[in-house]
Write a structure and sequence with these properties.
Blueprint: E1 12-15, E2 18-21, H1 32-36, E3 39-41, E4 44-47, E5 50-51, H2 54-67, H3 76-89, E6 95-103, E7 117-124, H4 132-137, E8 139-148, H5 165-176, E9 181-186, E10 191-194, E11 198-203, E12 206-210, H6 219-230, E13 235-238, E14 250-255, E15 259-266, E16 269-270, H7 275-288, H8 291-298
Parallel strand pairs: 8-9, 8-15, 12-13
Antiparallel strand pairs: 1-2, 1-7, 3-6, 4-5, 4-6, 6-7, 9-10, 11-12, 11-14, 14-15, 15-16
Helix pairs in contact: 2-3
């Protein structure tokens, strides 16, 4: 499959307050973030020229930086404005945005208090994370041997680059076996999430989702919980063990990139792409593509 490299594209990227030609948006090989993962980021989608939950994403962007011990040198309103400027400059109406902040190359070593904090925002057209065929019949997951870390071993509530290293390992291993993605357990052996999305299980008419005590409480997750409850579907946040998959009728994952994606199989256990999953897929799609509804939902 041919692929356009992300460093060789037309367009512009907002980089430390300026619009820079796409191919010139670079950093030094001795940047602290490359060696020590001192970086945070966001993943956002624009629908019809409107970035869904833009303010919430950029608030979390600042919170994540604070958890990693640095401050983003641009306020939330400035990041909001820059994100919209990037969309307009690249002529994108429906697309994906990636704000990222990282420690620069002024210091090399574990200690890096005096490094510059760099910020960039890129945007590109990107369809759903999984193929239409996979979404139609449900994606296939396999359980990863890598587990989400405990809250006292990593900054688990930051959207920090370093936390995704095991996600890449897990997803690569799953894909090598013919699966679409991996199910990750937490440090206690409980169901946690997929490699980049939260997970929901339908059991006897109720939706169950793991309590996000050692992984991100995703913005899409929050939206889907609200959509379900507005439709009279009970949502239970609790501890979920892997053996409960045998008692589950439907499974889906949620995330900005994945949106609402049905799961058809986990380690040989199959699930229907049922009515509740389909209803929430449609409800989410309708919501994010209607700015008026989105504003009402956020209020």
């Amino acid at each position: 499959m041919s692929m356009v490299p992300f460093d060789d594209r037309d367009g512009v990227i907002w980089f430390n307050g300026e619009m820079v030609p796409w191919r010139e948006a670079k950093l030094h090989v001795l940047s602290h973030a490359l060696h020590y993962a001192s970086s945070v980021f966001e993943g956002e989608r624009a629908y019809g020229g409107t970035i869904y939950k833009m303010r919430e994403h950029h608030e979390r962007f600042h919170v994540s930086a604070g958890i990693l011990g640095f401050q983003i040198p641009y306020g939330i309103e400035a990041i909001d404005a820059a994100a919209m400027e990037v969309l307009k400059a690249n002529g994108i109406v429906d697309g994906y945005l990636r704000p990222v902040a990282w420690r620069g190359s002024e210091m090399m070593g574990v200690s890096a208090q005096e490094t510059r904090i760099n910020v960039a925002i890129a945007a590109w057209e990107w369809p759903s994370y999984f193929s239409p065929e996979a979404r139609l019949k449900g994606i296939r997951l396999t359980t990863s041997p890598w587990r989400r870390p405990a809250p006292d071993t990593a900054p688990v509530h930051a959207k920090a680059a370093g936390l995704y290293m095991i996600c890449t390992l897990a997803k690569h291993a799953a894909e090598a076996k013919g699966f679409n993605d991996a199910l990750m357990l937490d440090y206690r052996g409980r169901v946690a999430e997929a490699t980049g999305a939260n997970i929901f299980l339908l059991q006897d008419g109720k939706l169950h989702t793991p309590t996000p005590d050692c992984f991100l409480d995703g913005l899409t997750r929050q939206t889907v919980i609200a959509l379900a409850r507005a439709r009279g579907i009970e949502v239970v946040e609790r501890t979920i063990m892997p053996d409960e998959l045998a008692e589950t009728q439907e499974v889906f994952i949620t995330g900005t990139a994945a949106e609402v994606t049905p799961v058809g199989e986990i380690d040989g256990q199959t699930f229907a792409v049922g009515e509740i999953t389909q209803e929430l897929m449609t409800a989410y799609s309708d919501l994010v593509r209607n700015p008026a509804q989105a504003s009402a939902s956020a209020a």
